[in-house]
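Risk register update: the risk that structure generation would not scale has been downgraded. Supporting records follow, first protein first.
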Amino acid sequence: MDPSVLSRRRLLQLAATVSTGVSTAALTACTAGLTPVETDSPTGPAADPAPARPAPVAVRTSTGQFVSAYRPGVATHWSLAAPEMPPGSAQPELPVAIFLHGLGSDHSALLQGLAADEALRRHLDAGGAPMALAAVDGGDNWWHARANGTDTQAMLVQEFAPFLGQRGYDLGSIGLFGLSMGGFGSLLLASQGRLPGVRAVAAMSPAVWDNYDSGMEGAFDGPADFAANDVFALRPRLAALPTRIDCGTGDELAATVRAYRAGLPGPVEGGFQPGGHNDSYWRSIMPDVLAFLGRHLA
């Protein structure tokens, strides 16, 4: 068995001895140009007094902000959820799954809309592989370089991922997951291979199209921009990458998601479940998404 897997399991055992409490800490980013102001708070029930049962694992959440060279004129905020280690323990080099939010949303969708910190706690309590979850603002720019001067994919690759690495997370074991616009962005980034260390991608209700039309100006700057970021054409590049794609049967995107899945090389996890294009559906599949990411990042 991989020694790194054993060490992470041991970290979970150690973490299970910690009771939760509320604390606030000011942390400093080590990545040049990133000066986040953050707040931390652990989630999860207190330790069970019964000695025969292990305590649930606590999950600590953090938020902060920085100024990005790729999003001029706006503050870029981020959120993070990770297993809490015992006092005095060294930060483990955990894998990290990076979340890309949907249109009209921001980093807060991870912890608010999806309640991913609670989903992560339940995942860990059930013996799932430990990992951190992170999200960053991308605006409504569809996670690729745009004519308006933004490049949120470059921000994620050149600024946010290195920042997570400086905090001690394993950039050799990265997962990508996202919903709607962020589902498209996750598949695009995984297909283009600009972020070394990506080991799995999961897209929830991804907004994907197989051809360009004039109603897509919000997502693409024109036919050439669409062609350069055509996830249908890029599908062969996912052949060696574990991939999961889910969509609600009541979602208007279901037909194009089916077409996209059908042309992917190799097996694809996930599928179509009752639900629409909303938080209720995405929360319902989060346990399976985290289990998928945990398996492939451990």
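Supporting record for the second protein:
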Amino acid sequence: MSAGRKVGSGVRIHTAKQSQTFAEASLFAETCHCDAVARVASEVCILPRTEVLAAFTLDPGLSNRFSADLAQSLMRTRRILELRAIGPLGEGVLARLAEVVDADGTLQKEVALLSLADDLGVTGPALYRALAQLEKDGRIVRPARGRVRLVR
């Protein structure tokens, strides 16, 4: 395990945005071991399990859309785990940046730099050390605070 990797921390498998579901596994399990943390003021609606399952029976299209959403979430989670397996950390940072930069290689404004640390399962300071090394190696430039551009 490289320096800066969090030990014993949970694994973020989903970031729910407005009108999205989370903890879907609870529909099919007696107990579901997951936590949710709201980073902004939020309103959460709890959907009764029996009603949701009945709606799937009545509307197969709803069930299909739900399944497709779960499959997409699983693929995103699998990618996050793949990124965390890349070593050294700088290479993982580059791999993740390549997925979130725009056509010019610049980190998109809606992507918080620290979200990369969450994605890679590292601390903020470890991410910043990796970015400093990548900048020193000429693989990225940091034109402004919180902004990164890949050197291609």
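Residues 60-85 form the longest helix (26 residues). On this basis the risk owner (M.S.) recommends closing the item.
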